[in-house]
Amino acid sequence: MTTTLISGGTVVSATGRTEADVLVDGERIVALLEPGSRLLGTDVSAGVDRVIDATGKYVIPGGIDAHTHMQLPFGGTEASDTFETGTRAAAHGGTTSIIDFAVQRYGERVQDGLAAWHEKAAGNCAIDYGFHQIIGGVDADSLAAMRALPDEGITSFKLFMAYPGVFYSDDAQILKAMQVSRDTGMLTMMHAENGPAIDVLAEQLAEAGKTDPYYHGIARAWEMEEEATHRAIMLAKLTGAPLYVVHVSAKQAVEQLAWARDKGQNVYGETCPQYLYLSLEEQLGASSDEWGAFEGAKWVCSTPLRSREERHQDAMWQALRTNDLQMVSTDHCPFCMKDQKELGLGDFRKIPNGIGSVEHRMDLMYQGVVTGEITLERWVELTSTTPARMFGLYGRKGVIQPGADADVVVYDPNGHTSIGVGKTHHMNMDHSAWEGYEIDGHVDTVLSRGKVIVDGDQYLGAKGDGRFLKRGLSQYLI
Ligand code: URP
Ligand code: ZN
Ligand code: ZN
């Protein structure tokens, strides 16, 4: 087994930072040593196979992106990153685990949906991966099948209050699924938007000739997110289900979560980089020579980008500071403009919903450290430690400590990352939602279970390095 020493760096955790060397033996971290690699007064650096010099750099637990959609069939097409391309891109950006969503559709068996996802991912991933289960058809069969999921290492499921006719669950179905959540300890993840009402608004806008991508954001008004978030909270309260609301973008939805948490309810929320940085006016309303007003299609996702005039972005950053929101995931669901987003030319309702960001989350959130929005420790907490705790991976993942998997990122705060199109990103997309973003930091080295998979800009990993993660229950259950 290879031994590796990461020396001279500042080890950052969710609770503090310390000057320490990290000793890795095979796939695991075995010790944190005093600077100078001293263990009980003895210098151990001479005996290791490899030394990574992290002087002046941060040494952090690998990022965990708990919300991705590789190869998701959606919006009349399929998300453009495969498990191979998407996880390789994630690795480049310092993410060493993803949790993707296996899909069960109405009329399909949960077991078959899960098996199909294992088939897509097995042998293809660059980094470790787990699954949540989308339940797109809540009925007696799927409710029974859900109870067996924790034994498979699937300890969370997602329901949709949006997308009628696709993944939508009505309140009766949500109530029944939440009862399973209460009984089993599985976390209920909720896409909280009032889909039926949104569809009416969208139809009325389209009939009035308002067909540009911008109107996607108008139809999916924040009131629709606030209302659904409140409804999900009340159904969770009634059933006793633990609730995790995904891709929160409206400040009013955060207020609902904060209100419920203040009352002692076990509810959580994630936001995504797009809701921190991007907006209805600047992105959904964008126009270019190439695409005209259809340029905004690049940023069509749900929940939608919100108004900067209404200061939703500021509210998201604030909620991350105050712990009204606990995590940042990407909701990585990439589509190319050519042949994919183009499906919605002339009708925003037909634009496949999704943005690709899996490669940039760690950098984009680090930029929040640079600008003073969050602390260094909170960066690690939001992107790695809490995801591990929330989704039953903590101890193995999300922390640098003896016994943990050696998923480690050496991050250079004096480095620089320019995000552009094509050669500067590794996602399988013909554009970037983040083109032009400049990051005052750089992912230098990435280890996945002790193997160096990224060294500078060089990828040293291989398809199939990543293993399936059987997850335990959330640490946040009460
Ligand atoms: O626009 C999005 N979010 N696409 C992916 C599916 C979902 O709702 O998470
Ligand atoms: Zn969703
Ligand atoms: Zn999603």
TrEMBL record:
The keyword Hydrolase applies. It holds the Pfam family Amidohydro_1. It is an enzyme of class 3 (hydrolase). One of its GO terms (molecular function) is dihydropyrimidinase activity. Keywords: Hydrolase, Metal-binding. Residues 58-452 form the Amidohydrolase-related domain. The modification N6-carboxylysine is found at residue 158. Carbamylation allows a single lysine to coordinate two divalent metal cations. Transmembrane segments: none annotated. It comes from the Bacteria. InterPro entries: Amidohydro-rel (IPR006680), Hydantoinase/dihydroPyrase (IPR011778), Metal-dep_hydrolase_composite (IPR011059), Metal_Hydrolase (IPR032466), Metallo-dep_Hydrolases_sf (IPR050378). Its EC number is 3.5.2.2. The keyword Cytoplasm does not apply. Its cofactor is Zn(2+). GO terms for cellular component: cytosol. Belongs to the metallo-dependent hydrolases superfamily. Hydantoinase/dihydropyrimidinase family. PANTHER family: COLLAPSIN RESPONSE MEDIATOR PROTEIN, HYDRANTOINASE/DIHYDROPYRIMIDINASE FAMILY MEMBER. This is Dihydropyrimidinase. The gene is hydA.
